[in-house]
Design goal:
Blueprint (H helix, E strand, L loop, with lengths): L18 E4 L5 E2 L10 E6 L2 E6 L6 E3 L2 E2 L4 E3 L4 E4 L2 E4 L10 E4 L7 E5 L2 H6 L5 H15 L5 H15 L2 E8 L9 E6 L8 E4 H10 L3 E4 L10 E9 L2 E10 L8 H59 L1
Parallel strand pairs: 1-2, 10-14
Antiparallel strand pairs: 1-3, 3-4, 4-7, 5-6, 5-8, 8-9, 11-15, 12-13, 12-17, 15-16, 16-17
Helix pairs in contact: 2-3, 2-5, 3-5
Length: 314
Amino acid sequence: MIEGPDSKTAFSLPDLEPQLIGRSTEALPITDPSVSRRHAEMTPDGTNWFIRDLESTNGTLVNNEAIEGRTLLHPGDRIRCGSSLFLFDQTPEDRIPIQSLENGSSELQITRRHTQAEGNQGQGGDTRSQLNHVIAGTELAMSDSDQNTYLERYLDLILTATTGESAVVIVNATHHSKADLMIARHRDPKSLAPIQLDQALVDDVRCEATSVLAESTPTSEEPSRRCVAAPLRSREQVRGVVLVTLAEGTTHIDLELLHVLAGQAGMALEQRILVEQVLMNSRLAAMGETVAAISHGIKNILQGLRGGTDAVAV
């Protein structure tokens, strides 16, 4: 906590356990009187944390914006509950740091775009290896894993299928969250080095809905940095972007294979969204039936009481 009566206090977030923020909770206990007894709740989902307000008196703000519903948290986010201000952070053991390079600060320039003609002609790679990667992508897309688990396994597949040193997948914000979901992977599973995310490149792929190769100009001190990025498309809708930083000295770049695997991921994400909607509708229907049954039972009791009252009156 960086502001408030409990400032300079650090609270740990255990894995897989929701945490309540408030004056009546042992998880994240606050002495600030402007904080409600049950103010907000933080819940884990895979490697991510979400927060929602529990109809508190003074509301919950993330980065000075009042939240509505379940909101995804990113390292560095500032959470305000009453007059108390928290800084949300995750240790390197929890997440690989992602450094976002805003538009104008990136040195990458797009040097090649994927075209339909390129897809029809192919690139002369190992056909059997390409087919094996596509089959693996199909099997992964058809698995019953949740979204975060799927994306983590998908990045492992991408790093295997390409000569990538690291990869980041960005899933567009939905009505459940105002922020994009980002998951990162290194080829070396022990590496915790920060990964640079070129926002201009991500925005271009989202807008143009096509895969690209981007390179930086080499200097006497730094070799050329090369990245490939592809849209996660489904039914003409871009649901996110995957960005791969290539290993130094990479010569063969199979942009077509990355484009196909990204398309599989887009369809897999849509499938999981539809399943979530079906489950939500089922829960709402079950809740409606339960409420109707309870209402019917209460009505029968009231009718019985009314009949008894009429009999006494007679």
